[in-house]
Specification:
Elements lengths: L9 H8 L1 H7 L8 E7 L4 E7 L9 E8 L10 E6 L8 H17 L4 H12 L3 H14 L1 H8 L2
Antiparallel strand pairs: 1-2, 2-3, 3-4
Helix pairs in contact: 1-2, 1-3, 2-3, 4-5
């Protein structure tokens, strides 16, 4: 089960990657450009695949990892380091996009049960009906709340 997504203040994202990269990152903050978003609360590690800009050879997907601080008393984390498979590799627009996207989802999903977040992520990321079916079976197995909804009259 995925932990609640972290919130990173945009000012900290800007300090981490720079204003230019932050500006470019804003165009990437949606489910069509970011997939497989994962957060490990034990290690404060945020991972995702982020679409490249689609230069020569078509769109590439870059594996992006951001290591964060533990959340402070206000619930905010700060970036410590990032690594991406893009040519920039460190503190890039893809890392900024992942942090902004996670914060957007965290704000939107506040108070939403984990099973519902998992189901919505499955809907966002499944590329085929079979992939969606497999992802939803995992969600159903993990959540008594979802099974109760499916079995409701």
């Amino acid at each position: 089960m995925q932990a609640s997504l972290p919130r990173v203040p945009e000012t900290d994202v800007a300090s981490f990657v720079g204003a230019a990269a932050l500006g470019r990152a804003r165009r990437y903050v949606d489910a069509t450009r970011i997939r497989e978003l994962r957060y490990d609360a034990a290690t404060h590690r945020l991972d995702a695949d982020v679409a490249g800009s689609g230069g020569r050879g078509g769109r590439a997907w870059y594996s992006t990892t951001v290591h964060l601080t533990a959340p402070d008393a206000g619930g905010y984390s700060r970036p410590r380091r990032s690594l991406c498979t893009c040519p920039v590799a460190l503190n890039c627009k893809h890392a900024a996009a992942v942090m902004l996207y996670a914060a957007t989802l965290a704000d939107r999903d506040a108070g939403v049960p984990d099973w519902r977040r998992q189901a919505e992520e499955a809907l966002r990321t499944a590329e085929t009906p079979d992939a969606l079916r497999a992802a939803m079976e995992g969600v159903i197995e993990e959540s008594d709340g979802l099974i109760r909804i499916f079995n409701a009259p």
